Structure formats: C-alpha cells, structure tokens
Amino acid sequence: MKVLIIGLGSIAKKHISALNEIGNFDIHAYRSSHDSQNYNGVKNVYEEKGFDKYDFFLISNPTSKHLGTIKSLLKYKKPLFIEKPLFSDTGAEYQKIVQEIEESDIPSYIGCNLRFLKSLQKMKELFSSLIVNEINIYCGSYLPDWRPGTDYRKVYSANRKQGGGVNKDLIHELDYLYWIAGEPVNSRAVFKSNSSLSIDAIDYANYIWEYDGFCANIILNYYRRDPKRTFEIVAQEGTYLVDLLANRITKNGEVIFASDYDIGETYFDQMKYFTDEILIKGESSTNNSLTAYKILELCLKN
C-alpha cells in the first residue's frame, strides 16, 4: 500500500513505526521545505502531484491545519486517517467538511489509540453489566516534561492559536468515555488558563457529563508533576478503578485485571485495525468523522 503523511512530527513517527512493523507500505511525507530531513526510509514529496495514486492519507499536522488539509484532499476521495482531535474548532464550516466526508462515502478514522489499551477494552466489556452510580476520570501530567529539551511555551500544546489546550490534547479521556458509556444527555464544563505554567492555552478543564442514572466527572490538567491517569466507576457491584498508566483494573482495591502490554503498542493495534478492517475489509469505522465531531463538540462546549 502507498500512504502519504501530512505532518511529520512525533506522533507521525509513531504511526510510521506501526506501519513498518505491519510491513508492505510505501510511505511518503508531504513536506513544506526542500531542506526537510529524511526520516527512516520515508520518501519526501514537495508538490501536490500524483496524490490520486495513494491508498490513504494520514493527517498528523497541527490541529489548527486539519480543516485546510482535509478540504484540499477530499477531491481525491481516499480513506483518511486523522490524528486526534478532528479539528481545533466547531461550526458551520467544519460541519460542512464532515458532511462532505460522509456523503462522499470516504472512509475515515480519527486516531484515538487509547481505545486499544487492554485495561480500557476489558473495562468496556465489564461496563455493560454494571449498575453505575458515578464515574470519575482524572488525567494530569506536567507539560514541561512532555518534550525534554524543548521550551514548553513554544510547543503547540501551550498555544491557543495553534489548536493547543488540555481539553484538545487530552480528548482521549472524553473519547474513551463516549466509547464506553455513550453520548451524555447533558454536559457542562469549566476551562481555566491561569496556572503557574503561564500559558495562554487552557491548562485545566473540568467536565460533568450527565447520563440517565449517573454523572461522570472528568478533570484534565497540564501542571501535575506526578502523572496520574485513572478511570473510576462507582457501581452497585463495587468500585472499579482503571489505572491507565499501569494498565490495571482493581475492584474494591483488589487487582482483577493486569496487562504487561505497553501503551506504545496501542499505535500498532490501532494501525492494524485501520488497515485490516477499514482499508482491506471495508468495515465501518468505530471512530469516523461524524462520531469524532460529536465528541469534539462536547469537548469544546462549556
């Protein structure tokens, strides 16, 4: 298969590694400068020529550029693998693109690799049989530690105009809750950007999603020095706690599931799913542009 990547950053390199592990891919990258360095056998492309020959496009440039990139590629009617989040904003122009993707029957998948984390997959299995009273999700880590040797204030995560912000960066938490529990009947949120990090992007978000029978509370932040990523379900049957960093589930403090599976391996399973199920078998995507847009609307709403 022949794939074109738009945006050759750190996430794209994880996808390239997954493609190479699967094998039999001719990988090209659309570059903006002839001075761009070569990467791991990827062929650089500098002009929009022969794009109709690619089997799919992988979009992993800054979120703020997704709209223009997708708009320019739709005429080729090729499958789209789009790194999360789908867009940096919502509104009529964005809805129009989603509608065009769906009406043109262009296969799309928005990359949310945590759906392939073993502990979350197991919790999804268990969830359907539980009588849920409350859900608490927490994801906090220290933005300056994300990219060692780089000024965190200059990366897109810290800059609102580039599509940064903890609510978009950590949309994974909203995505997996939507995937496991479904669409809430109501939602509200509080966003802040006044922590000691001194960045203009949102560095704290607190969501409350209302469901029939229970509420879910989701807290996201950029400033916690000791990383914590948990998914707690307080049910009639007991309290289940998914520790995403340890890839483990406890019930009332006792381990009921654990996996040595590394979170980095989710990129392989995700790409394998996309290539095997969507590209080869033609199955419907579990996270297409329409679903991802609904989640994005919930993400940005306050």
TrEMBL record:
Q: Report the Pfam families cross-referenced here.
A: GFO_IDH_MocA, GFO_IDH_MocA_C3
Q: Report the superkingdom from the record.
A: Bacteria
Domain (Gfo/Idh/MocA-like oxidoreductase N-terminal) spans 1-104
Q: Which residues form the GFO/IDH/MocA-like oxidoreductase domain?
A: 121-240
Which PANTHER family does this one have? CONSERVED EXPRESSED OXIDOREDUCTASE (EUROFUNG) (PTHR43708), OXIDOREDUCTASE (PTHR43708:SF8)
The protein's name is: Gfo/Idh/MocA family protein
Give the species.
Salegentibacter chungangensis
